[in-house]
Amino acid sequence: MIENQKIRPAQVIGPLGEPLTLDTLPPASTTRWVVRRKAEVVAAVNGGLLSVDEACERYGLTLEEFASWQRSIDRSGMPGLRVTRIQHYRDLYERQQRF
Prior knowledge:
48% of the residues lie in helices and 4% in strands. By secondary structure, it is mainly alpha-helical. It has a domain at 35-99.
C-alpha cells in the first residue's frame, strides 16, 4: 500500500447502493460465491476498504481469481459474474474488441 493511503474509509458504497463496512462484508468463511458477494468484495477493494492482498487472504482467493472478478464487472457489470454466463460474456467482449 502506498504510504499516504493508510487512511481507510469507514464505509464504501456497495454494488446495490448500500453502505459496506468491514462488518457487513461477506464472512471470511464464505465458500459459496454468489454474484452479490463477489461484487461486494470488488467494491470494497475499489473503494479502499480492503487491499487486494487483504481480500485474497481473507477469502482464500488467488490474485487471478480476484482479477477475473474485477474484469468481469468492468466489462459486463454484475451479470458478468454469473458462472453460468462466463463464456457468453467472454464471447461478447471479444466480438466488441474486433469492431
